[in-house]
Amino acid sequence: MEQLQVPRGSGIVLVVDDSEANLKLLAMALDGVADVMVASNGREALEAVAQESPDLIVLDIRMPEMDGYQVCTALKRDPHTKDIPVIFVSGLSDIDDKARGFALGAVDFIGKPFDIAEVRMRVTTQLHLKQAMAALARSNEDLEHRVRQRTTDLQRALERYRKSSIDTIFRLSKAAEYKDDDTGAHVIRMAYFSRIIARTMGLPQELVDGVFYAAPMHDVGKIGIPDRILGKKGKLDEEEWRVMKLHPIIGSRILEKGDSELIAMAEVIALSHHEKWDGSGYPHRLGGTDIPLVGRIVAVADVFDAVTSHRPYKEAMSFQDAMKILEEGRGRHFDPAVIEAFFAAMDEIATIKKSYSDQSSQQLTGAELSIPSAVKGEFQ
Ligand SMILES: [Fe+2]
Asked: Whose CB among 142, 151, 221, 380 lies 3.0–4.6 Å from 250's, allowing a Cys bridge?
C-alpha cells in the first residue's frame, strides 16, 4: 500500500502510554510523520497539553491511576482542548470498549501489538483531516468576513441612495414653495406637524416616517401655476381660483408612476390635501374616509401652518385663533380624529413652530439653500 506522506513538522503528536517500550516504539513509528511529545501517565499528559497544544493525541487506555477514558473525558470537557483529536491505543481485550471510546469523542483506534505501517497511516490520516478542517474553518471565516464586508458596503450604498433621494425630494418641495413662500420653512414645519399627528394617532412607524418625508411635496404642483396668480396680492377671481385649484392634479401628475412607496405616498398627499371631510373640497370632492388618511393629516398641518404664518399680504394668526379655526373645521373641513390628535400634541406643535420660524429660515441663502443644518439629521 502506498504510504501517505505528511512532511515533518506538519503536526505535533502527543503519545501517552505508561509503558516506556511502547512510547519508544510509537515515537519511532511516527518518525518523519510528525513531531512527537511523550507522556507516561494521564496527569503528565494533561500538563503537557496545557503547555503546548498538540494536533493529535495517541492515548493508551490501560494506565494506572488515570486511565485513557478519564484523560479523554477531561480533554473534551475543557473548551481549549476539546477539539484535539484522540486516537485510543487498545489491547485485543479492549475491543468491546471501542463504542465507549467513540462515545467519549475518540476519532480512531490503534490495536496492540502495533503494526508500524498502520500506526503511521492512521496518524497521517488524522493529521490530514485536522489540517483540512483547519483550512475549511479559515476559508469559512474568510468567506464570512467577505460577506460581512459586502453587506456593509451595500448598506452604505443604500443609505447614500436614501439620503440623496430625500435630499432631492426636499429640494423639489422647496422649489415649489419658493414660488409663493420665499422661506421654504413651511415644508419643514409641515413635515414635522404631519409626523407628530401620525404618531399621536398611533399609526404604524412606516406611515409616521413616510408622511414626514412625503408631506413636503404636497404643493409641488404649484410649479405649474402662473406667478401672476400665485403672487397676486389681492383676492383671486373665479378664473384664477379655477387655475389655482389645479395644483393638486398637477402635483399628482408630477409624482405619478413613481417606483418608491415614498413617492407613491407623496402623490396621494399632493392630490388629496385640499379635500374636505364634508365633501366640499377639491379636486374630487371626496368626503370622510374616502379621503386618504395621509391627505387628511396633511390638510390639518397645512392649514394650521398657513394661518399662523406671516405673508406679505396677511398677518400671522395667533395660536388661539388658529385653534379656533381648526375646532370650527372639525367634522366639516377636517377629520375629527386628526383634529383630536393635533390638539393632544399641541405642546410639540408649538415647539416646532418656534424652532423653524420663517425668520430663522430666511437667513439661509446661496449655497445654504440645501437642508437647513438644524433639520439635516432628520431629513438626511
Ligand atoms: Fe396646496
From this structure: 221
Reply yes or no on domain 178-379 having CATH 3.90.1200.10. Answer: no
Least confidently predicted of 94-98, 208-212, 227-231, 376-380? 376-380
Distance 235 CA to ligand 1 centre (A): 17
CA of 176 to the centre of ligand 1 (A): 11
The rounded Å distance from CA 120 to ligand 1 centre is: 87
CA 167 – CA 9 distance, rounded (Å): 61
Separation in Å, CA 360 to CA 72, 355, 357: 76, 8, 5
114 vs 56: CA distance, rounded Å: 18
Per-residue pLDDT, 96: 67
Tell me how far apart the alpha carbons of residues 344 and 350 are, in angstroms, rounded to a whole number: 12
Q: What are the angstrom distances between the C-alpha of 196 and each of 34, 98, 109, 338?
A: 72, 71, 72, 11
Q: How far is the CA of 248 from the centre of ligand 1 (A)?
A: 7
Place of cell 439635516: 376
Kindly report the number of other CB atoms within 10 A of residue 274's CB atom: 23
* Alpha-carbon span 356 to 175, nearest angstrom: 18
Q: Sketch the domain layout of the chain as residue ranges.
A: 12-139, 178-379
In terms of CATH architecture, what is 12-139? 3-Layer(aba) Sandwich (3.40)
Distance from the alpha carbon of residue 215 to the mean position of ligand 1, in angstroms: 11
Burial 229-240 (b: 16+ CB within 10 A, else e): bbeeeeeeeeeb
Distance (angstroms) between ligand 1 centre and the Cα of 321 equals: 21
Side chain identity at residue 288, one-letter code: G
Give 340's contacts (C-beta < 8 A, 6+ positions apart): none
* Cα-to-centroid distance, 3 and ligand 1 (Å): 87
Distance 274 CA to ligand 1 centre (A): 6
Asked whether the whole model's pTM tops 0.85, one would answer: no
Strand partners, 60: 89
Query: Given a cut of 90, is residue 58 above it in pLDDT?
Result: yes
Q: Taking the mean position of all CA atoms in its chain, how far away is CA 244?
A: 43
